[in-house]
Amino acid sequence: MNLQSAIDLGVMSRVEGLLAAIGTVTGLHILDIGCGEGDVARALAGYGAKVTGYDPFIAGSDWTREGLGAYRLASAPADAIPEPDQSVDIALFVFSLHHVPQPRLAGALAEARRVLRPNGRLVVAEPLAEGLNHYVMQPYHDETEVRAAAARALSRHAAPFFVQERVVRFSEMRRYTDFEVFAAIAIASMRFNRYREEDVLAPEVRRRFAEVHRSRQGRFDQPVRVNIFSW
Hints:
alpha/beta; Rossmann fold; 8 helices; globular
C-alpha cells in the first residue's frame, strides 16, 4: 500500500496517533524497540499494556506500575532482542527504525517477526521527510536518506512475511513558544542522534525557525506514517 492510499487521522499527539492506529492495548504485551527515554512505553503502560522498551543507549529500569499497566526499560540493539520466540502481541518501532544502521535493518525486522505471537502485529511509526518541522531541522539533522532506507527495508524484509499491511498517517502536534524551547528539546536528544549543539544553534536553523514561527503561530506539526503488519 502506498502513502497516497493511507488513511489520514489528522493532527494529534504521538501517543494519540499510535492508539488510533493500533486500537486498544489493554492486556497486551508490547515491545517498544528503540524506546529512547521510554516516554511511549510509559504512556502505553498507562493504557493497560505490559511494555518492555529496548534501546542500546539506555541503562534500563525495573518493572514499574503505570496506570493500568506496567513497563520496564532494558539495553539491547534492535537485531538482538532478549525475548523468547512468539512471546509478544506487538513489536513496535516509534521513530526508531531509521536509526538502525542500514546493514542491520533486515536483522532488526527479523527479530521483530521472531518475537511475535501468532496473530501478533508489527507496528512501525516513522516521521516523514516533509513538513515544517523537517524544514527547520534539515540543516543539522537531515534524515531523508535513512528514512527512505527504513521504508525500503519494510518493503523488502517485512511486507513479504505478513498476510496484510495497513497504512495510516497523522500529523504529530508540535508547538514551540520560542527558539530556546525548540533548541533545548533538540539538544536533549543528541545522544540518540548524530549532531552537535552548535549545529542546532546555527544561524540558518534560527532563521528557518523564525520564518515558520511567524507564519504558523508556533505550530511545527510533523507528518508521520504508521505501517501495521499482521499475520
